[in-house]
Amino acid sequence: MVCHVTRIEFSKDVVEGCRSILIDKDRNPKWEPSRLELIRDDDVDRYFSKVDDEDWEDLKLPPRSNLPRYAIAKL
Questions:
Q1: Cut 0.70: pTM above it
Q2: What is the distance, to the nearest Å, from the Cα of residue 24 to the centroid of all Cα atoms in its chain?
Q3: Cis before residue 63, ω within 30 degrees of 0?
Q4: Residue 58 — very low, low, confident or very high, per pLDDT cuts 50/70/90?
Q5: Could you please report the per-residue DSSP string of 30-62?
Q6: With bands split at pLDDT 50, 70 and 90, how would you rate the model's confidence at 39?
Q7: How many Cα neighbours within 13 Å face the side chain of 69?
Q8: Domains contained in the chain, number
């Protein structure tokens, strides 16, 4: 999800939120869509999908052997 947000592929709401807080300091973002009920299910699904770009690599984390047994079972 963070990959899609930082790539600004589907929405500019993060940029708009930063503008309203950090730049203009008006705390009045202009969200698109303007109301939560206008967000479609397929828009949410796109945020949780894998990035479709051949130049994009998934983050590969090294294995962590110092985790408790119950945490490893959940990975």
A1: no
A2: 23
A3: no
A4: confident
A5: --SSSSGGG--HHHHHHHTSPP--TT-----PP
A6: very high
A7: 0
A8: 1
Pair of tokens at residue 18: 């930063």
Q: How many C-beta atoms lie closer than 10 Å to residue 31's C-beta? A: 15
Which is nearest to 33 in space by CA: 10, 5, 51, 6?
10
Query: Domain range for residue 37?
Result: 2-71
**DSSP code, position 6:** H
Can you tell me whether residue 7 is helix, strand or coil? Answer: helix
Give me the count of residues in the chain. Answer: 75
3-state secondary structure of 48: coil
Kindly state the tokens that stand for 16: 């708009």
